Amino acid sequence: MKPMFTLSNYAQLKALSDPLRAEIMIRLIEKSYTGQQLSEIFGLSRAKIHYHLKELEKNELIEIVKKEEKNGIIQKFYRSVARGFTPSSQLLPQIGDVSETSRQLLLQLNDRTRNAILSASEHAFQLEQASEEPSNWSYVGATWHFSAKEEHFKKWIKKYHSLMKEFSEMTKNDQPDEPDSKMYYLSTMAFQVEEPLIEELKSEKEE
């Protein structure tokens, strides 16, 4: 799976702007599923799920990664072609559709993060010791609001992706079945808002 896929045409953009397809895509970024499995997850008919899978496959956003035979029926497992999606420069004139596609993907990612928090064990949120040192924490949960120039925000994004690439390289040989290895769920969102949402930041701006 590629880290990033560039949407090159309007059909791809529209395919991702549909809320249900956006939710399907988030699932298929996480792991591969058959149409039947997705039908059970969403409580929808196989025909409806199959239609949306075909639309996503037709637009080269998902692909079949394996096939298995079960009870004489060939099951196809679908997976997203990338972990993230970005529009090409030629799609920027359709800024409204680009924005809506991004919004839908973030909304579905937010829902999946919420579900992951609710399904995590109590141990995931237990602190082994009281400490103000972040390296001693067993989980991270924070909301930050900044007033920043766009160029500074973009520099932060670049550093963030560089850090995640470094972390991925650091952990590439860590196997889930190792005694000291644990599974972690990381979810990050950052986007522009119209006004400060944290009271302290509002007060600073007014002074």
UniProtKB/TrEMBL annotation:
Please tell me whether the keyword DNA-binding is annotated for this protein. Answer: yes
> Which Gene3D superfamilies does this chain map to?
Winged helix-like DNA-binding domain superfamily/Winged helix DNA-binding domain
One matching Pfam family: HTH_5
> What keywords would UniProt list here?
DNA-binding
For the HTH arsR-type domain, which residue ranges apply? Answer: 11-122
- GO MF annotation list: DNA binding; DNA-binding transcription factor activity
- SMART domains xrefs: HTH_ARSR (SM00418)
Cited SUPFAM superfamilies: Winged helix' DNA-binding domain
Query: What is the superkingdom listed in this entry's lineage?
Result: Bacteria
DNA-binding recorded as keyword = yes
Q: Which InterPro entries match?
A: ArsR-like_HTH (IPR011991), HTH_ArsR_DNA-bd_dom (IPR001845), WH-like_DNA-bd_sf (IPR036388), WH_DNA-bd_sf (IPR036390)
Query: Would you tell me the protein name for this molecule?
Result: ArsR family transcriptional regulator
Q: Which organism is it from?
A: Bacillus weihaiensis
